[in-house]
User: Fold these one by one.
Assistant:
Number 1:
Amino acid sequence: MRKKASLLARLGLAGLLTLGLEGIINKAEATRIWVRDIPQGIYTIQQAINIASPGDTVIVRDGVYGYSENPLYRENFPIVIDGSTQSHEGDLTIMSEHGRDYSEMENWNGAPGVVSIQNVGNELRLQGFSINGLFSPVPASGGLIGINIENASPIIAECSILNNEKAIYGLDADYIIQDSNIITVYAPSGRGVVATNYSNPQVRRN
């Protein structure tokens, strides 16, 4: 009986070691992708998102991401995060290097939104950005929606979402907003967080 118990204990330990090794291997396979990593030729946030694999982390260096005289650095909006068409499959963290006071997305090209998130679960995390729609009450100005979320449940953390007619617009979206600032502008249809068509957002510590 003692020998059997000892064998089971060894098998249990072997199983734990195997699970631990698998965790280490999976963690090692995940990659940090640095935006504005010149040697790697990664100049924009969208470029980094497009090449990311499941479990990767995109780290965005300090700066304003928007218009640049150099087309390599020019960020066109909206930035699209789509778990059904991009290789990361919605398992991705996108975060600034030093927080929202140092990394800003600036909607220079008058797009109807700054960030579009679709077809992802809560494995998608967007963290530490100032998301500036550059709203002006002129139809051609753009900057209507800060973050547009459709059929998705991402986590939005430590962001400042400002100068948008609607800061966050959710359609079939169960997203989490935490530790963030939402600053809208006056407009006939101005809103902070809009939840439509069975959306169920959670707002935490904002």
Number 2:
Amino acid sequence: MEQETLFGTETTESDTTTHNTSTTIQVLNRYIVSTISSGLLVVDQQRAHERILYERFISRSTKECISQQIMFPIQCSFSAADAEIISEIMPELKDMGFEMNPLGNTVFVITAIPAEISDGEVQNMLDEMVEDYKNSLMQKFNDKEQSIALSMAKQLAVKKGTKLKPEEMQNIIAQLFSCKIPNTSPFGKKTMIIMKDNELTEKFK
């Protein structure tokens, strides 16, 4: 059984026909540029990764989720109000790969976490998730599953300014083209542009 990582583990044959991975480069530690049959593909690495992770997390509600067990359980503490929110969204958190149980009124013991995060990130991630959930309620957006998936994707996506290895860039492009909605991030921003051959030619006239 393969363990999911932030950048994935494999590239399918159909993915490699979409772009030429041998000419994939990173520009400004922000964009991934690759040649395609019609010209150049330019991908915003953060937005693309947000889309990939969002669709991955959303899909977990319909299939068995793979969690990583923690050798030493983690105790996470919250305010009374935030602890109520954690209790409210606990079923959705379990769908995403968290295993937790209450210890008193404001403390939760975490025994398993999603494969994409480390032990040291758990408290901050849950704190941010609670804040994002509060904001979604204020915006009258009350789909718990989507709110949590959006929060996790935003927090875990590779950020602008991060230098990527060649295989990481290739995996992002391959996985992006496997997404249901590859052209935009889950926040509605463009993930990519394609500059066609004739557009490049015009630039040099």
Number 3:
Amino acid sequence: MRPYRVHDPDLLAALASATTPTAWTAVRKGWPPTNLRLDEVYLAGAQLAGYDLQDVSLVGANLIGANLAGANLADADLSWADLSGANLTGATLSDVEAFNARLAGANLTGANLTGARLNRSDLVGANLSGAVLTGARLADANLRMANLSKANLAGAMAQAAVLVGANLSGAVLVGTWLADANLDEAVLVEADLTGAVLRNVRRFKA
């Protein structure tokens, strides 16, 4: 069950008035880190490329189709947020909390998701080509038909993850925990599975 959260209306107004990443950075300095709350806000289609949203709480936010290319979302809370179809190319999402987040069809090419907590997240059809997911948590995540080509998932915990039809060609899966994962029809050409835990993995070739 999603907890009820309240956003700071003044912070939302400040974000709306800041027309550039630099202007937003100057504005957010006036808020204590504990008050950076934008929970449940509607930001669908927002142009936030390059914005510094580190440590911002965006629980349950609507960011459908938002442009967050190159944005800094390190340590942000995106739990239950909807980022379907969002552009997160080259974004920093290290140590982000994204439990039950919806990222279906999102573009995460080259994004930094080191240590990201994506348990039970929806990444169906997402593009994670070249993304860094070392040490990420992906338990029960849905990555059906996702593009993970040349992604680095070394040490990631992806137990019971759904990777049906996912493209993992050239991916680094060194020490990745894939126990009970579903890899039906997944492409694993030139993937490095050294030391990966594959207990009870479901795997049928196309």
Number 4:
Amino acid sequence: MFEIEKILHHIIENPQICIAFSLSGLLFLYLLLGFNRKPKSLIGENVLITGGGMGIGREMVLQLIQHGCNIIIWDININKANEVVHEIKELNPHIHAYAVQCDVSSFDAVKTAATSTRELLKGASIDILINNAGIVSGKSIINLTEHDINRTMGVNYFAQCWLVKEFLPEMIERKHGHIVNISSVMGLLGASNLTDYCSSKFASV
């Protein structure tokens, strides 16, 4: 018992340890309560995903339609986005799926695409926003041009800001919505020929 009292006294006298224990307790409660929750139904939710025309974005789209989500794909490559929309309609003709061309690095382009999206949805709102679009140049810092760096930061980080600014106010007003920003472990590390990419992902993290 004396040892336990010494340990408790040591914890109380050290604020950093107290904070660590508090955070650990909160995490435990969150996990405990979270695991007991029923899965959220996504049927009929309108999901906007950037960069959904290929790669990870396309795979997420194909997973989401299995949960009954309607899909809006924003992609700079409209042909790829339309291919995925066609694929969705073949897999499940009851799902509403749309493709909108957008350079997400441009604030003005995001505003224009948002207007087009709202018209397609006939006034309905975005329930889930997934900021997935990303690019990588694969050049050394010496060989990167100003355009390369601006482009990487624009697509990988600033685009997330532009879309959150566009759709978050509606979610707050409706008290309904989710935002997912896709980042990368490279935002916490460094690697050769990925200076701009790592920096953009660090900003996202």
